[in-house]
Amino acid sequence: MKLVIAIIKPFKLDEVRDALTAIGVHGMTVAEVKGYGRQKGHTEIYRGAEYAINLLPKTRIEIAIPDDQTDRVIEAITAAAKTGQIGDGKIFVTDISRAVRIRTGETDDSAL
Amino acid sequence: MTNQGSRRKLTISLSLTAAASLAAAPALAQGAGKIDAADTAWMISATGLVLMMSVPGLALFYAGMVRKKNVLATMAQTIAAVILGSLLWLAIGYSLAFDGTGAVIGTLNRVFLAGVGPTTTHPAASTIPEALFMLYQMTFAVITVALVAGSVADRMRFSAFLWFVAGWLILVYVPLAHWVWGGGFLGAAGLLDFAGGTVVHLNAGVAGLVAAYVMGARKGYGTDNLAPYNLSLAIIGTGLLWVGWFGFNGGSALAANSRAVFAMLATHLAACAGALAWMFLEWWTRRKPSVLGIISGVVAGLGTITPASGFVLPWHAVVIGLIAGSVCFWACTQLKLQLGYDDSLDVFGVHGMGGMLGTLLTGVFVTAGISGGTSGLIEGNPMQVAIQAYGVVATIVWAGLVTWGLLKAIDLLVPLRVSPQNEVEGLDISQHGEALQ
Fold first, then answer.
1. How would DSSP label each residue in B280-341?
2. Number of domains, chain A
């Protein structure tokens, strides 16, 4: 089992979700986060004070999938989230050692 | 905070109550004026409008501009100024400010509104009940002290602030109100201040500046991100202040008449002109017109026109507003950085500068036809500007010195600032045990 973590631009969330649904992924966890990579921030000015805002809003998606779906999921997310501009985000894949569906007690692949 | 301080305060107020009851025992004073229904109806409305400027107008305006962790505490300061200030005004403030004709201070004849009944009137407002005049003036007193809190937002201890409300109202506001409006020496010298350029705005602005210097800058000023939590709250607050100002300036006519109308008209025009001036200056110098800038310009215009509102022609108000927006923009973005003080919410930059400017411009623009006889510079009387300057200097000296002394005295009782850890954690949690979710 793999945990796919994608950091994407917030306005791309609906597209990514639709793309994942289309390939059979029916669950995800979404969080609003802040971060930066190569994308520069912006400056906000309030009367006499200027603030350089370097942490930009991003959306973090986590999807737990069986190993064999990894490549398809990565392709789907990449295609949907890409704009070609700096700040499109990143995808990380980590291993899941165990998974449990709380309602039924099913484990591992049956829980995904 | 010591118990002795509060015990002594309690003893004094009980003695005053006893004295007042004795004085009021025989009969309620009969006023010399005939109460007019129209004037009274307008002044009742105006009083409500001005109270709305404090709650929730100023509370929203200020709180929207601080960081999330201090929003509730900032609102608490405004509310505290109202709840404590109002009772002190009843107890002693009103009497000392408005009763009698002493050059320096009033009498104690009206403590706890002794001698005031349904038909009693005050000489300055002989067509409305004195109780209403007192209540109207109360709304001015409490918003003035609430304004000062803006300079030291994000770092003042709540208990110290309560002491400050009590001390500042009685030692700074009351004498100044008496000198300008209550029959004291500044009014007698011919100082024109229709609704509070000196008594309210310059006074609060100078006090704020002094407080900002005495208490020092916020932790992280100049390095950390101190961006406003929610400017929409500030914008809503500005709206309430704007509408409420119709009562602040319009009601200062103390009657339902054309003077009130001209005051309201001047008020509104100055607000609009001030906003446009700030907006275009900011657009030109910083590429974008910020909404914070626009509402700051509104308040700058409103504060600056305040002393002149019932004395000038409508087109004067536009000129005054344009100057106000420009000067206050400069004060908040240049002067502040040059002088290096952390006046968190620009009380000096907007109200202090605006009050000073407006008081002086009153001397320039006051028109005999509107003011009932007094002329200013443009009608050939330069002397009025000198009188206005005299009032400005007196206000700055009194407000500056006494505020400084008061803060130093309070600091002996309880530290003015919260601890550094509490400042980082936020005033909401550390002072009030609450947090916005």
1. HHHHHHHSS--HHHHHHHHHHHHHHHTTTTTTS-HHHHHHHHHHHHHHHHHIIIIIHHHHT-
2. 1
Q: How far is B287 from chain A (nearest CA, A)?
A: 11
Give, for B105, the enclosing helix (H) or strand (E).
none
Which residue of chain B has the CA closest to A53?
A: B225
Nearest chain A Cα to B279, which residue?
A: A47
> What residues does each domain of chain B span?
31-432
A44: closest chain B residue by CA? B227
Cβ of A48 within 8 Å of Cβ of B337? The answer is yes
Q: What is the pLDDT of residue A38?
A: 86
Report ipTM for this prediction: 0.76
CATH of the domain at A91: 3.30.70.120
Q: Is the pLDDT of residue B25 over 50?
A: no
Q: Is the confidence at residue B2, as pLDDT, over 50? A: no
A52 has pLDDT over 90: no
Task: Give the mutation candidate from B66, B225, B235, B279 for the A interface (greatest A CB count, under 10 A).
Answer: B225
Q: Which domain holds residue A26?
A: 2-111
In CATH, what is the architecture of B31-432? Answer: Orthogonal Bundle (1.10)
Q: What is the mean pLDDT of residues A20-41?
A: 92
